[in-house]
Amino acid sequence: MTLRGCFVTGTDTGAGKTVLSAALCAAMRAEGVPVAAFKPVATGIGGPPEGDWPADHELLAQVTGASPADVCARTFEPPVSPHLAAQLAGTTIDVDDLVAAGSAAAARADVLVVEGVGGLLAPLSLEHSVRDLAVRLGLPLVIAARPGLGTINHALLTIEAARAADLDVRAVVLTPWPREPEVIHRSNLETIAQLGAVEVVTLAHVACVVEQLAQAGATLPWRAWLAAGA
């Protein structure tokens, strides 16, 4: 089965993957595109919410009209890496199972948006990383990155790790983009674009409101990201 969609990864934990994924899904759904979201593994479930934001898979369920159980294959309570969360729970994470769950989610829509876990090399087990899952799903990659100091190194390392596995990197999204960007923010954007040979776009700060997420996502060139062989 050939999937159509994109795989959203981040330069690290907290780089904006969930907001970016939710904005993409909300924008597509607002334009009548049947879209499904897939979060292969979610950790830190059951802890205190981060402000107004629900858990990742709950937000993705909200913006796609699905149930959280349909969005996420595996959930764990401790806010740790997936492989450690599974170890603490006395279980393992099987990449084949995640691929099957992702394919099942894709079958419910025309487009699948996958939100990864942590960064691209975050371990799902001691044998497989998030990158291995991305390769198996075969979707083009969109990278969420912070706009400030340190982002150049993080973004270029992620691009390099992705291309080393022949992943198709479509764009880097700097988020949350400041309302009044400083010289460093503009320089970071231009430098990543030039040194990474990649499209770099921005996503502004957005509240946890479906309509606002859709409006923010509409500013992104997601149609080009979904195009075959772009």
Characterization of the model:
The chain is an alpha/beta fold and 230 residues long. It has a single domain, classed as 3-Layer(aba) Sandwich (Rossmann fold). Helix content is 41%, strand content 20%. The chain has ten helices and seven strands. The protein has helices at residues 17-30, 56-64, 68-71, 82-88, 95-106, 130-137, 151-164, 183-196, 210-217, 222-226; strands spanning 5-10, 35-42, 72-75, 111-119, 141-145, 169-177, 199-204. It has a seven-stranded parallel sheet with strand order 3-2-4-1-5-6-7, sandwiched between helices. Strand 6 (169-177), helix 8 and strand 7 form a beta-alpha-beta unit. The protein is globular and about 50 Å long. The mean pLDDT is 94.
Summed up, the helix count is 10
Task: Name the helicity range.
Answer: 40-55%
Strand order of the largest sheet: 3-2-4-1-5-6-7
Please, what is the CATH homologous superfamily?
P-loop containing nucleotide triphosphate hydrolases
Return the average pLDDT rounded to an integer.
94
- Strand percentage: 15-25%
Q: Radius of gyration from the CA trace? A: 16 Å
Terminal CA distance reads: 20 Å
The CATH topology comes to: Rossmann fold
Spell the H/E element sequence.
Answer: EHEHHEHHEHEHEHEHH
Q: Which geometry do the CA atoms define?
A: globular
Output the structural class: alpha/beta
Largest sheet: 7 strands, parallel
List low-pLDDT spans: none
CATH class: Alpha Beta
Q: Judging by the overall fold, what is the CATH architecture?
A: 3-Layer(aba) Sandwich
Care to count the β-strands? Answer: 7
